[in-house]
């Protein structure tokens, strides 16, 4: 593999690969105006030649890639102190967003735990109501209170209070 890689580099270096070509662009000869920038290639050639004259991103360059380029250019213009302040500001922004996202996740988890606890509590209450209904029916049938208590796990007092 190393030999093949070296061979490829030698072929490229000595221009032996007929599929490889070079295009040189002299920006000084690129003279298209703003109205003629219909394709991105023309915009990419226009930007480095004219960026020093632009104080803000022109409307014809309103694309995410050019916005990112201008943001990087603006950052690179900052002196060390300004850059440190900007970095600290970004860190604070990212920390605040992280805290916000964590709070949202914790709130969601708490809500899910609360719902599950509520469901469990509801099931327990439902079981208790079922047991009370069975005890009430057993009492109507004349089964001894002690026996009802044994099978339903209710107290004798709870069974005696049933109507």
What does this structure look like?
The structure is a single chain. The protein has 163 residues and is mostly helical. The protein folds into two domains: 2-120, no CATH class; 125-160, no CATH class. Helix content is 68%, strand content 0%. The chain has six helices and no strands. It has helices at residues 2-13, 40-50, 64-77, 80-140, 145-152, 156-160. Helix 4 (80-140) runs antiparallel to helix 5. The radius of gyration is 39 Å and the shape is rod-shaped. The mean pLDDT is 84.
Using the CA coordinates, give the radius of gyration: 39 Å
What is the end-to-end distance? 90 Å
Beta-strand residue percentage: under 5%
Largest sheet, if any? none
Oligomeric state as shown = single chain
Structural class: mainly alpha
Number of strand elements: 0
Helical content (DSSP H or I, runs of 4+): 55-70%
Number of domains: 2
Q: Quick gist of this model?
A:
This protein has 163 residues and is an all-alpha fold. 68% of the residues lie in helices and 0% in strands.
Question: What does the secondary structure layout of this molecule look like, with pairings?
Answer:
Elements: H1 2-13, H2 40-50, H3 64-77, H4 80-140, H5 145-152, H6 156-160
